[in-house]
Amino acid sequence: MQRILNVFVKYRNSILYLFLLVFSLIFLKANSNFHQLKLEKISLFFSSSIYSFSNSINRYFHLEKENQRLLKENEVLKSIQIKSNTPFLYSEGYNNKTNFPFDVQKVNIIKNSFQSQYNYIIIDKGAASGIKIEMGVISNNGIIGLVQAVTDNYASVISILNQDMKINVRFKNRTTFGSLIWKGKMPKKFSVEDVVSTSSIKKGDTIVTGGMSSYFPYGIPLGVVTNLENNIQNGYYKIDAELFENPAELYKAYVIENRDFKEINSLMKNIKQ
Amino acid sequence: MNSQILKMMGSFVLLILAQVLLFNQINIFGSVNPMLYLFFLVMYPFDQNQTFYIFIGFVLGFFIDFLSQTGGAHTIASLSVSYLRPIIMKYSYGLTSELPKSILTDPRKTNNFLFLLIFISIHHLIYFAIAYFSADAFLLIIKNSLLTMIFSLILILLISSLYRVK
Predict the structure, then answer these.
(1) Which pLDDT tens digit goes with each residue over B14-55?
(2) Which residues are CB-neighbours of B29 under 8 A, at least 6 positions away?
(3) Minimal CA–CA distance to A89: which of A214, A193, A208, A180?
(4) What's the number of domains chain A is made of?
(5) At A234, which CATH number?
(6) Taking CB atoms and an 8 Å limit, are A13 and B83 in contact across chains?
(7) Does residue A237 lie within any of the structural domains?
């Protein structure tokens, strides 16, 4: 207390000066409209910059919430986008179809690997959220994999970075089909096989999902053709492709469910017998 | 001592009246009015209580503002200049040398003049900066302060020589 008083006594002139200065500024403001306007402008400048600073801090704390909101919005938009991709060959037939059999669900990837030749992913939703075996997992710009096993709250996914995975693809705006297979070295380098050398393909063509399997709908963009070799001896193209998105760097994904999966599968079984 | 206080109070009232009734109506070159009332702050003894001096500076400016309807520019200028007086004094008389009792009795003419010059120029700059209160009027502020400063300086030098004769 003594110290505070000492400081007060020591700086009494400055304190008195500041006090009287504030008083005279108030006096000035009250007496002159011109000065009132100017001072209000200055105070507006200071208060607005302080508010914008605190607002930016507040926004930072709300980022998580905002993120969740955006992901939810994305979920809705993604299902709309998938529904709107109708193949150009059968466009009329698909447009007339009244039911689209795919549902979209948002998940977090909690474990992702790419070092091995046979990679797996763990996601944070399982049977309790309606995840079943053989559902497709996609991201914003491509495929991630297929659900392989489920527990109550988690599910394991065979990554697209697994040399056992063969994905049915086609080239955008062309009629050619092929199979996308990981080369096993870099996470984004893939090759496309089973493309007959008579079909017309160019470097830079976009690769999309083919829609022939019941796992993924038609038209999810996957990557581009980076290199093209026509192998005359066996009659197939040798195609190198690069993905749009690195599957090893993702931490959010969407699980898509084909509601007609059982129906289609039962038909397949009938064909085999 | 008593007569000293009476003399100060008398010159306080006289200087305010002279400023408001006479010197605010001069309008040299259309707008320049010398500020004589600063003489009170200049001649106020240096060895008195600084806190009380700041308060006097405030009251003086307040009265001038009140009677000549100039918002608060005189108050802020004279308050600031009385707060800064010890610093101005140190600069104009030298940091180590003995500080004078009053500007009227001190024999160091150059230092007295320097003190007056700095004191008045700071006051006028603050006054016109607040009166115009805009960065666009920078040149106008400088021009007005310089012109008014010349006349205030001449007047205050004259008055102080009169006081000295007494």
Answers:
(1) 888 888 888 888 888 877 888 889 999 988 888 888 888 999
(2) B147
(3) A208
(4) 2
(5) 2.40.10.350
(6) yes
(7) yes
Distance CA A226, CA A167 (A): 18
Any domain includes A193: yes
Q: Is residue A125 part of a domain?
A: no
Tokens of A224: 């581009």
**Which residue of chain A is at minimal alpha-carbon distance from B49?**
A13
* pLDDT band at residue B165 using 50, 70 and 90 as cut-offs: low
pLDDT digits over B61-75, tens only? 988 888 887 778 899
**With left for phi above 0 and alpha for psi between -120 and 50, is residue A209 left, alpha or beta?**
beta
**A45 interaction partners in chain B (CB closer than 8 Å):** none
Provide the token pair at A216. 């993924």
Contacting residues for A164 by C-beta, under 8 A, at least 6 apart: A118, A158
Q: What is the reported pLDDT for B124?
A: 93
pLDDT in tens, A10-35: 888 888 889 888 888 888 878 777 77
Which of A45-54, A127-136, A164-173, B110-119 has the lowest average pLDDT? A45-54
Nearest to B79 among A21, A32, A38 (CB): A21
Say how many Å lie between the first and final Cα of chain B, rounded. Answer: 17
Residue of higher predicted confidence among A186 and A85: A186
The residue whose two tokens read 């059968």 is A90
Final residue in a domain of this structure, among A26, A60, A94:
A60
| Facing residue for B79 by CB, picked from A20, A32, A38 | A20
DSSP category for residue A132: -
Q: What average pLDDT does the segment B141-158 reach?
A: 90
- Chain B positions touching A24 (Cβ under 8 A) are 58, 61-62, 72, 75-76, 79
The pLDDT of residue A196 is above 70: yes
pLDDT band at A273 (very low <50, low <70, confident <90, very high): low
* Dihedral sign from CA coordinates of B17, B19, B23, B27: negative
Which one is predicted more confidently, A121 or A102? A121
Residues constituting chain B: 166
The arithmetic mean of pLDDT across residues B117-145, rounded, is 89
Query: Which range of residues forms the domain containing residue A219?
Result: 167-246
Task: Specify if A268 maps to a domain.
Answer: no
Q: Is B12 on the interface with A (CB under 8 A)?
A: no
- For the stretch A73-76, contacts whose Cβ atoms lie closer than 8 Å and that sit 24 or more positions apart, written own/partner, are A74/A106, A74/A140, A75/A104, A75/A105, A75/A106, A75/A254
The residue-averaged pLDDT of A141-170 equals 86
